[in-house]
Amino acid sequence: MALDSKIPQGPLADKWTTYKNEINLVNPANKRNIDVIVVGTGLAGGSAAATLAELGYNVKAFCFQDSPRRAHSIAAQGGINAAKNYQGDGDSTYRLFYDTVKGGDYRSREANVYRLAEVSANIIDQCVAQGVPFAREYGGLLDNRSFGGVLVSRTFYAAGQTGQQLLLGAYSAMNRQIGRGKIKMYNRHEMLDVVIVDGKARGIITRNLITGEIERHSAHAVVLGSGGYGNVFFLSTNAMGSNVTAAWKAHKRGAFFANPCYTQIHPTCIPVSGDHQSKLTLMSESLRNDGRIWVPKHKKDVEAIRNKTLKPTEIKEEDRDYYLERRYPAFGNLVPRDVASRAAKERADAGYGVNATGEAVYLDFASAIERYGKEQAYVKGLDANDAALVKKLGQEVVKTKYGNLFQMYEKIVDENPYETPMMIYPAVHYTMGGLWVDYNLMTNVPGLYAIGEANFSDHGANRLGASALMQGLADGYFVLPYTIGDYLADDIRTGPISTETKEFEEAEAEVKQRIEHLINNNGTHSVDYFHKRLGKIMWNKCGMARNAEDLKSAINEISELRAEFWKDVRVPGTNEEFNEELAKAGRVADFLELGELFAKDALQREESAGGHFREEYQTEEGEAVRKKEFQYVSAWEYKGEPKDAVLHKEELVYENIKVKERSYK
């Protein structure tokens, strides 16, 4: 099957405008007769549901949380990118486009990325109008800071809780439409299948998580904004409920799954402390604006720190290795996430990790506190040589910029990051892979759309920091509302979609059969037992560094673990009640299939690109070696077992960017 990305013709900068001028539209009277299902209420799903309802469509929105505002988007901290050039430092739509393609190691689609950069400025205006409290400079103008992989300041932020504030904006817009009756909200409902009628997505099967009731819901189109699959690793920065089920069910109904091996390892997370943990905590990348990352130069100092006979603050400046500044002088501590993560792993593997497990490096704010303190002393006409005063003033500035992050770190680690450096280490954070979509954000299944982190389209092999929020809101507010209208224009005479058809009956029966098996299995091990085992296979063999031998082993081990799961998992309770273990079991079952496809995808991609680092393909300096023959999107077609999945390739053509070795030196 040929993959048609449906990219408009013409110059790159004109494609989106030309497209919008030529698409079919649905008039307001006809929109009232069209139903759209939106699964997920994070920034992508929430903004899409609100905008589609505002346009006049009848929207049915679903989330498995008790409220739309509990979507995982709320956890995003550092900011959202937009090419507004408020700092006058040379930013532009093209610069954001270029940084994104380069940051993704030349593995993303040009047309989609340019459109993302183009609409980014509109997002900020939209959110300011909604009342999102972005940080402002003294004069009242919106403030910006830098994130990894760029040389400009284009990240808008609201302290260290940007995702929360943006989600509240989308949630408010949703609530307005819920109040008008244009959005019918289904909280505590989990999508467990997509229903295909005559080749088109016409509805979903859900389980009411409170009562256990299996329900049929129909619509003229289905939109998945259900997030990423980082929890396939068990330990990640994702909320514990985050899962792949909605996207995976779509995949099993014919939607291609693209680039599953592209996973982002975030360099700035609180290190693992033991097997007792159920998730990891992200410390925002914004901290790398002012924090300097280092390890001791001498192993005797490392040993002393681990033995608690030496404090990091006692190590002299000349005895510290600021390894990112040393290796990448042009970008320093603001290299992209994949580069920073591998560099931290290299230092830890070499024996310079600073915690008990040997898997931690320092993120130090002492220099920033002193710099800001002296600046404030000058501004206030005070003594800039008074060390105590400078420290106090500097800490106040840092508290204003990052206070809630510092507070969170101290609550978890029980150390004061104003006085001693933070300890950080890479952890699974975001997934660039997802359902394959064309320029319209539609999968290869007509009427089935995927937006935000649920699709693969914008970030290539590595997402730049602060671009997740940008993509989610771009898709929901400014892209999907146009593209879905072009498709729905053919449905104005269709009428309501009935749920009393054999397609809905068969899909519902399959869901019930699967649930019955899990409830009646009476195995000996819990769901978490299998999830943790899967997570260790994924992290050890499909994590920050991969090789052919480990990937082949992972494929076999995951296949065997999946068979064991279905034979030996134990799910207590019944299916006619609130049963979180049952919900979790279904999600882990899907992870056990995705994990094998993930490893299969990583094995066939014999190169290193972005977050996919194959040990066989690296330079003498440990940098990634990308190969031109892998300049494509790998889109996998479901054929039963993951080992039988069929690969389809969408060749990536670059007409506006010269593909070259990525360098941040």
From TrEMBL:
Keyword Coiled coil: yes
Keywords per UniProt: Coiled coil, Flavoprotein, Oxidoreductase
InterPro entries: FAD-dep_OxRdtase_2_FAD-bd, FAD/NAD-bd_sf, Fum_R/Succ_DH_flav-like_C_sf, Fum_Rdtase/Succ_DH_flav-like_C, SdhA/FrdA/AprA, Succ_DH/Fum_Rdt_flav_su, Succ_DH/fumarate_Rdtase_cat_sf
Domain FAD-dependent oxidoreductase 2 FAD-binding: residue ranges: 35-469
Gene3D superfamilies attached to this UniProt entry: FAD/NAD(P)-binding domain, Fumarate reductase/succinate dehydrogenase flavoprotein-like, C-terminal domain, Succinate dehydrogenase/fumarate reductase flavoprotein, catalytic domain
Listed cofactors: FAD
This protein's record includes keyword Thylakoid: no
Annotated ranges, domain Fumarate reductase/succinate dehydrogenase flavoprotein-like C-terminal: 531-664
Protein name: Fumarate reductase/succinate dehydrogenase flavoprotein subunit
Protein's organism: Winogradskyella litorisediminis
Taxonomy of the source species: Bacteria, Pseudomonadati, Bacteroidota, Flavobacteriia, Flavobacteriales
